Amino acid sequence: MNFKFNIHKKVRMLVLLAGLLSFLVLGAIALYGLASIRADVSEMGTEFGESGANYTQNLLTKQLTETLGALVESRAEYINRDMERMMQDVIILAETMTEIASHPQNYEPRTLPDPRYERIGKAETYIIYSPALREQGVSPALSHEIEIASNIRDYLVPLAKSYHTYKSSFYVGSKNGYFLCSGILPGVDYSPIIEEEIYNYDPRQRPWYQTARDANKPLFSDLYADIDVDKHGIPYQVVGCSAPYYDADGFAGVVGLDISNTDMNNAVLQTGIGERGFSFVLNDKGRVIISAQKEGLLASKEDGPDLRHDKNTALADTVKSMVAGESGVNLVKIDGENYYIAFAPMPSIGWSFATLIREEEILNSAEQSRTYFADQINTFQDKLSNEYTIMFSTAVLVLAVLLSGLIYFSNKLSARFVKPILQLSDGVRDIAGGNLDKKITDINTGDEIEHLAVCFNAMTDELQNYMNNLKKVTADKERIATELNVARDIQRGMLPGVFPAYPDRKEFDIYATMDAAKEVGGDFYDFYLLDEDHLVVTIADVSGKGIPASLFMVISKTILKNFSVFLNDTKDVNREEDFSEVMTRANDQLCEGNEEMMFVTVFLGMLDLKTGRFVYVNGGHNPPIIYHHAERRCEYLGVKKNFVLGGMEDMRFVQQEIQLLHGDLIFMYTDGVNEAMNENKEEYTSERLLRFMNQTNCDIELKELLKAIKADVAEHVGEAEQSDDMTMMALRRN
Amino acid sequence: MEVKKELQGTTLTVQISGRLDASNAAELTKELNTSLNGVKDLILDFNGLEYVASAGLRVLLTAQKRMNKQGSMKIRNVSDTVMEVLEMTGFADLMNIEQ
Question: What stretch of H or E contains A238?
Fold first, then answer.
């Protein structure tokens, strides 16, 4: 379960980490971007608002002044056009009058109404006789002239009617003192004429007459008080335009028309901008002719001052520009307040039109737009802040949703990931439990785990095969081992194994043991009586191990015994003196057909039980130890180094002899004793063997003595496995 | 056991070290069987050889017998322990041992 938890957890952590990391990185970048955008926008907004407001203010001021200029120019043009129309009308009037006066024969005499006697209808032409004329009396010629001139009525009446929205008059003043006139008073269907006009009016004394006569061309007069009155009977100021006319003798009089300057004011007044803005018209002499101002410096007054010389130099300079026919926009201070004054020329009459607007109002507008702008920016910032908050909350929400999603999916994923592993581990546990038929089949992940499962199945198959083979091999081995055991038993059975071997012989004791190693070996010992007095002992070790060694051992033992017996019975061989002949012959016999180069080391000895003479031949074997009972001392038996048996043909073996006293003993052994190894691969050694035997009591029972020696060897060997046969044999002469 | 062989002309030097016993005697036999063709002088260098078991002696004997036919065999650098075995078994008399 620990395993499952780990992988499970790891996968989950991995998925979580990967997901979270990428999300956090993206989120952090997004939030950082957002925050910096927010900061930037905030900063930019403030800056933008400030500069925008400033810019707007400047732009607005500029635009307003430009608009003002344009407006003023169009207004000037408009008024100019009105004035031009007036001028045109006057010129036509003058030409018509000149036509009538120059060709009186073309016209029928007519009579016009006289306001002294009758009420005059609207726009109706009437006649006024100046006091001077009335005084001198009207001559018939003059009367005829008046009657002819009266034909102008057909022109004056329609002209007057065309001006029916203005308080206006249209008239002809003759150099002879009569005055023909049509008047319009809007909203009134008659012409109100005051007594003053009827009885005291002499056109030749009026400014419009004199200026036109003196100039001898059409012109606009300055502002003057008209003789006409409004419906309340109050005279009003007019702007007039007059032109001379001629008869056959030259100058004959002046025609003219005038319009109330307040009517013209309407047009001017309309062009006022702002609460206290206003407009005015300036004539070519620096005087205000028409003005929306009722009072103050810029109000229109008869005989008003020439503003070019005003002490307000800014105003004076502007007025100079205006008189010079220029257009422009200036800033002036009037009555303690700053005004933008925009002006444009009216070229037909040489006058100038001006509009004023308080600077404060422009500034107010600019300030308003600035405030508006700042408000917009603030709103934008607020909106942005809201958006940011919403976005941040959304991000947090998305993170939460994503996180739970990630946890859910990573759980699922890791579970899915781990499931086949669990299946695999269950299967493997089953197999480990010994069920080799178990197959892991239900893993179809298509990845390494499935591959692992396939490998596991293959391994199980292999394991099964191996087990089957092992069973077979084990069975075979078992059989061979059994056979080997039988062989070993047979081999052992060939050695004399019953002790005491000769219970009825008191002259000697003999005892032997063989501890076989696991594998069947080639050690053997043998002893037998040739006759009553001669005992032969053999100890031998066949080279190598196993079946070949044991077979060779059987052969060697048989051959050696055969030759001992055979030579003992051969007449011309001395049993004791020619004892080595046994070895020589046995060697030759063993060499025959010995392709495998097997050989055997042999110690062969023969004891004369009567005399104690011990004759021996050593064929490459370990020298035995002799115990001298009298001295209680052991030593190695001196042996000639004869060659082993079976190795080389025609070898000569040298025999030796020694006298055994009573109590002496010969201890024979194979190299399994002195070469017995402990776990450190250290040999027991022949030195230690001799030392041990010198330290121990060698007079005890042979069986006990051998047991003691074996115990010492075992002590040396310890836990190590016995590697070679260990054979010991002891012979004591009693 | 470790075996190193060096062939110079017809002289083969075989260096044997470690323990030569029943477990590896067959291996050495095989080595020598395949290498002795055409060799006139076989030198067995026992420098580093700690122990010779009887099975090992058999290999020496086989080699000696073969070299008796095709040339000569010499053993050198024999340690005291091994010499003891060779002397005891009579091999020392039979073989050319350089001391």
Answer: strand A235-247
Task: Kindly tell me if the per-residue pLDDT of A716 is higher than 90.
Answer: yes
Is the CB of B79 inside 8 Å of chain A's CB atoms?
Answer: no
| Interface probe, candidates B54, B65, B67, chain A, greatest A C-beta count within 10 A | B54
Backbone dihedral angles phi then psi of residue B37, each to the nearest 5 degrees: -60, 125
Closest CA relative to residue A222, chosen from A238, A245, A210 = A238
If asked whether residues A228 and A318 sit together in one domain, one would say no
Q: Which residues in chain B are closer than 8 Å to A544, comparing Cβ atoms? A: 22, 25, 54-55, 58
> What token pair was written down for A21?
């990391």
The nearest alpha carbon in chain A to B91 belongs to: A643
Chain B residues with beta carbon closer than 8 angstroms to that of A591:
none
Given strand A337-346, what is the order of strands in its sheet?
A: A288-291, A278-282, A351-358, A337-346, A328-334
Q: CA–CA separation, A649 vs A86, rounded Å?
A: 174
DSSP designation for A273: -
Give the ipTM of the model, two decimals please. Answer: 0.85
Statement to judge: residues A621 and A685 lie in one domain: yes
CB contact under 8 A, A621 and B88: yes
Same domain, yes or no, for A711 and A608?
yes
Using a CB-CB cut-off of 8 Å, the residues of chain B touching A622 are 88
Give the residue carrying structure tokens 């000037």. A76
pLDDT digits over B20-59, tens only? 887 888 888 888 888 888 899 999 999 999 888 888 888 8
Strand partners, A108: none
C-alpha distance from A480 to closest chain B C-alpha (Å): 19
Distance from CA of B14 to the nearest CA of A (A): 20
In which element (H, E) is residue A493 found?
A: helix A448-494
Supply the angle between the helices A2-102 and A261-270 in degrees, to the nearest 10: 160
Residues A314 and A206 in one domain: no
Tell me if A671 sits within 8 A of A622, measured CB to CB: yes
Residues 6+ apart with CB under 8 A from A219: A211, A212, A241, A242, A243
**Both tokens of residue A30?**
């997004």
A580 is a domain residue: yes
B58: nearest CB among A597, A651, A671: A597
Structure tokens at A320: 């100079």
For residue A621, the distance in angstroms to the closest alpha carbon of chain B comes to 6
Cross-chain residue pair B57–A644, CB shorter than 8 Å: yes
- Taking an 8 Å cut-off on Cβ atoms, the answer to whether B58 and A599 are in contact is yes
CB pairs A-B closer than 8 Å? 60
Residue A202 lies in a domain: yes
Note whether A643 contacts B91, CB cutoff 8 Å: yes
Type of residue numbered A403: L
Q: What are A122-133's pLDDT values in tens digits?
A: 888 999 999 988
Residue with tokens 């190193």: B4
CB-CB contact of A60 with A369 (8 Å): yes
| Tokens of residue A255, six digits | 């025609």
Q: Report yes or no: A16 and A406 within 8 Å, Cβ to Cβ.
A: yes
The reply to whether residue B25 touches residue A642, judged by beta carbons under 8 angstroms, is no
CATH number of the domain enclosing B78: 3.30.750.24
Domain total of chain B: 1
Summarised one tens digit per residue, pLDDT across range A129-152 is 999 888 888 888 899 999 999 999
* Per-residue burial over B53-73, b = 16 or more CB atoms within 10 Å of its CB, e = otherwise: bbbbbbbbbbbbebbeeebeb
Task: Tell me how many domains chain A contains.
Answer: 4
DSSP designation for A576: T
Contact residues on chain A for B55, CB-CB shorter than 8 A: 543-545
Beta bridge partners of B20: B52
**B98 to chain A, minimum CA–CA distance in Å?**
18
Interface of B with A in 5-34 (CB under 8 A): 22, 25
Interval A506-517 mean pLDDT: 90
